[in-house]
């Protein structure tokens, strides 16, 4: 690693942290293209292993304030995390077997799905009154395993799937689902990171630089979010457009992956 790459890793982490702080989600999906095309990492598998490690650290760090605020439904959160952990580890093993070009092509498709989901109308009905203490355990475990597989395969936290999954199964309020999801995001990222690390596919210097930048970016993003609270919807549209453009670029340069 060169000094320039370290600085670019800090810069990239700052961007991701800023987006997470500003929009409350979605920023981590930019980690892979940033490490590939800004930092200049060459091996897609090392990029995914490194991203998973950074995601895990950030998720556990962000879990602390949510836990202190009482936003974590621990029973459902831990059940989802432990059930999905095996899926995440399995998904990471499968991901390492897929050639880099194909993996990035599939990742770009996932980015497009997320970009579209970010601008879809959100339900405004509060679900706090519908919260069920009797969680449908088999359904919760099944969903956790499926989300874990996807998370491990792509090296992402999977929060954009975990949050609606928790709400659908448990009917917990949105803020509780966000706080509870961080237990799974951290655990899934950790399992993926362990799998990739055992294969020597994690660059820890970049992980620490990325996370360091993310802390600073997150503080700035959260500060700006308060001042731009009325423009959040517009910001989501702008960010969704950026993710879509990056995804299309990744699809084009990895188009040869179609020749499977």
UniProtKB/TrEMBL annotation:
This is Probable membrane transporter protein. InterPro entries: TM_pro_TauE-like, TSUP/Inactive_protease-like. Its main location: membrane. It holds the Pfam family TauE. The lineage of its organism: Bacteria, Bacillati, Bacillota, Bacilli, Bacillales. Keywords: Cell membrane, Membrane, Transmembrane, Transmembrane helix. Belongs to the 4-toluene sulfonate uptake permease (TSUP) (TC 2.A.102) family. Coiled coil: none annotated. It is a multi-pass membrane protein. The chain crosses the membrane at residues 6-39, 46-64, 76-95, 102-120, 140-163, 175-198, 204-225, 237-255. It is found in: Cell membrane; Membrane.
């Amino acid at each position: 690693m060169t000094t320039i790459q370290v600085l670019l890793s800090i810069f990239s982490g700052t961007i991701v942290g800023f987006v997470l702080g500003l929009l409350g989600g979605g920023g981590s999906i930019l980690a892979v293209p940033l490490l590939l095309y800004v930092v200049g990492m060459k091996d897609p598998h090392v990029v995914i292993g490194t991203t998973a490690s950074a995601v895990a650290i950030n998720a556990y760090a962000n879990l602390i304030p949510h836990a202190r605020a009482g936003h974590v439904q621990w029973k459902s959160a831990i059940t989802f995390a432990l059930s999905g952990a095996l899926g995440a580890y399995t998904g990471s093993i499968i991901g390492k077997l897929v050639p880099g070009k194909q993996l990035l092509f599939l990742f770009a498709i996932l980015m497009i799905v997320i970009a579209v989901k970010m601008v879809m109308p959100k339900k405004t009905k509060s679900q706090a009154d519908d919260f069920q203490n009797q969680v449908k355990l088999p359904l919760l475990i099944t969903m956790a395993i499926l989300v874990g597989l996807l998370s491990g395969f792509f090296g992402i936290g999977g929060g954009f799937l975990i949050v609606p999954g928790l709400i659908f199964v448990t009917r917990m309020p949105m803020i509780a689902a966000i706080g509870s999801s961080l237990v799974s995001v951290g655990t899934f990222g950790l399992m993926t990171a362990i799998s990739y690390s055992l294969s020597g596919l994690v660059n820890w210097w970049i992980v620490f630089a990325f996370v360091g930048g993310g802390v600073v970016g997150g503080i700035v993003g959260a500060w700006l979010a308060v001042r731009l609270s009325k423009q959040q919807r517009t910001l989501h549209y702008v960010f969704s457009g950026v993710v879509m453009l990056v995804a299309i670029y990744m699809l084009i340069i990895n188009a040869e992956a179609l020749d499977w």
